[in-house]
């Protein structure tokens, strides 16, 4: 128990540090709630670290590679994939600070100690990306004469990975309290009014989180799907062209991004399932309570059951089945890309 508390405390200490140094661009108001301000030094800090510096490094690295690799001619599909990936990196770098800040703001959350779930998944992603960065750095040192190119790669990949990790930590920070309530819900016969109030409060919290999540899901999931398609396509072309030194980082990049996609989807699904847990407990309570109380419980149960899953600005719902839909769609588009190529 003490060990779990210490791990939870360390995790939240990390969240507090990221908030205080501006990597998560929010500030506490007089009531302790975290609020996002577009014009603040924390937003400037987040944009500087996760947008401006990595994009400058990316553009510099791509320019140097184009100049030193003029002998290797890219196919039309490879050239298109490269430009789409660059545009995508620019777009997501511009959106990350605003979307993460808005998610925290809409969630109406405070900096208090709560258990954070799925930390091991993030650790697995960090290990994968550390290996990818090391391989790319080694390839850059071996292939190119300039010392600045490996440094540019190191800055870009490291800061880009840090930006993604911060966004994933924000998702964990926002959703974990709701999941915790659903898992450790306890009911006794004398708490009917209390349970009704808790259920309504949880429903309001979940709706607030959905409002912040919706634009994030709309932007980040398509980005990740295109990322998977890009690196899978480039990996296949590298193998077919005999460039096996790119295979390992491409495979790890795809696996890491699929891990993050499932990480986001599972948080959305489990947060929504917390409402189902409350609905189930209220149904059990209705079997034991007086007849005049059943109607009140039934109204709340219906409200919980009708609550829709997380969605991406209304375009699609995000549930665990969404993950398999993404996998099947990605395979279909990849086949099309390879046929056109």
Description:
- With 341 residues, the chain is an all-alpha fold.
- The protein has one domain.
- The protein contains nine helices and four strands.
- Helix 4 packs antiparallel against helix 7 (247-288).
- The model is unreliable at 1-7 (pLDDT under 50).
Keywords:
single chain; 341 residues; two-stranded antiparallel sheet; 9 helices; 4 strands
Taking the alpha carbons of the first and last residues, their distance comes to 57 Å
Q: Count the strands? A: 4
Adjacency order of strands in the biggest sheet: 1-2
Detail the poorly predicted runs.
1-7
Rg for CA atoms: 23 Å
Structural class: mainly alpha
* Helix proportion: over 70%
- Percent strand: under 5%
SSE string, helices as H and strands as E: HEEHHHHHHHEEH
User: Sheet bearing the most strands, described?
Assistant: 2 strands, antiparallel
- Tell me, rounded to a whole number, the average pLDDT: 81
Q: What best-fitting shape do the alpha-carbon axes yield?
A: elongated
Give the tally of structural domains.
1
Number of helices: 9
Write the layout of secondary structure elements.
Layout: H1 2-21, E1 26-28, E2 34-36, H2 41-68, H3 76-107, H4 119-143, H5 148-183, H6 192-240, H7 247-288, H8 291-305, E3 310-311, E4 317-318, H9 320-340
Antiparallel strand pairs: 1-2, 3-4
Helix pairs in contact: 2-3, 2-5, 3-5, 3-6, 4-5, 4-7, 5-6, 5-7, 6-7, 6-8, 6-9, 7-8
């Amino acid at each position: 128990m003490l060990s779990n508390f210490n791990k939870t405390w360390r995790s939240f200490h990390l969240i507090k540090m990221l908030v205080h140094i501006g990597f998560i661009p929010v500030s506490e108001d007089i009531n302790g709630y975290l609020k996002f301000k577009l014009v603040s030094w924390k937003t400037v800090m987040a944009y500087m670290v996760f947008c401006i510096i990595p994009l400058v490094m990316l553009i510099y690295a791509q320019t140097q590679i184009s100049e030193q690799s003029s002998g290797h001619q890219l196919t039309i599909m490879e050239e298109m994939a490269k430009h789409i990936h660059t545009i995508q990196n620019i777009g997501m770098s511009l959106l990350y600070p605003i979307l993460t800040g808005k998610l925290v703001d809409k969630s109406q959350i405070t900096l208090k100690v709560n258990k954070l779930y799925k930390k091991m998944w993030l650790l697995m992603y960090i290990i994968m990306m550390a290996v990818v960065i090391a391989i790319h750095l080694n390839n850059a040192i071996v292939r190119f004469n300039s010392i600045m190119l490996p440094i540019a790669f190191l800055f870009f990949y490291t800061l880009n990975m840090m930006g993604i990790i911060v966004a994933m930590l924000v998702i964990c920070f926002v959703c974990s309290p709701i999941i915790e309530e659903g898992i450790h819900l306890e009911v006794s016969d004398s708490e009917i009014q209390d349970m009704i109030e808790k259920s309504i409060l949880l429903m309001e919290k979940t709706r607030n989180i959905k409002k912040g999540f919706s634009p994030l899901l709309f932007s980040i999931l398509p980005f990740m799907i295109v990322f998977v398609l890009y690196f899978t396509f480039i990996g296949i072309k590298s193998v077919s062209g005999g460039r096996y030194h790119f295979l390992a980082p491409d495979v790890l990049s795809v696996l890491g991004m699929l891990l993050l996609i499932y990480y986001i989807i599972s948080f959305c699904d489990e947060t929504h399932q917390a409402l189902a847990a409350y609905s189930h407990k209220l149904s059990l309570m209705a079997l034991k309570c007086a007849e005049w109380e059943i109607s009140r419980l039934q109204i709340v149960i219906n409200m919980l059951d009708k609550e829709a899953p997380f969605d991406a600005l209304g375009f699609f719902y995000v549930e665990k089945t969404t993950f398999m839909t993404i996998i099947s769609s990605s395979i279909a588009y990849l086949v099309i890309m390879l046929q056109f190529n």
